[in-house]
User: What shape does this take?
Amino acid sequence: EPEVTQTPSHQVTQMGQEVILRCVPISNHLYFYWYRQILGQKVEFLVSFYNNEISEKSEIFDDQFSVERPDGSNFTLKIRSTKLEDSAMYFCASRPGTSDIEQFFGPGTRLTVL
Amino acid sequence: GENVEQHPSTLSVQEGDSAVIKCTYSDSASNYFPWYKQELGKRPQLIIDIRSNVGEKKDQRIAVTLNKTAKHFSLHITETQPEDSAVYFCAASRGGSYIPTFGRGTSLIVHP
Assistant: This one.
């Protein structure tokens, strides 16, 4: 069964550095999402992406964040200048299409900002 | 925006017992309610979902009920097994984006 994949599984970075988290959604899925989960807390929506543009974003997704689909398979989340509070698990998810509403989550990238 | 409350935060049961997790939501326009199971260090996985045109849905040992008037929905697990131990998240979303707002999660512990 196809799955969403994410790399790296764990990223350690210094405060102020830029990080890029990578995701490969399930082939033929049209909607893509990023979520974050601070340790021990609930999953929070960051951004959704459809038709090569952001369709919706939360208040967490400020100017420090950006997303890109550089080619036909990858979907990336960039954090320009990481802060300590960016430490979290970041999940990518994808969804087939308009009538298929189940989202499929990737395994996550644990980001640790020192 | 939508607000989802989930209770209890921790639920400890003996193997074979039933477990019930309850959630409430605030946005009356929400019409899709998925439940996710997240094992330690793993991705959230959809275990069951319900749409607003249905009051109950069952899949083997798992059932979900929805009361639209009261804006609450519940997850019922019968004959619990140790492998049911995980964190369970409820969520609510509405048509269009179907972006889920998650509850805070319930840590279910099933003792053998």
Remarks:
- The mean pLDDT of chain A is 94.
- Chain A touches chain B through 18 residues (CB under 8 Å).
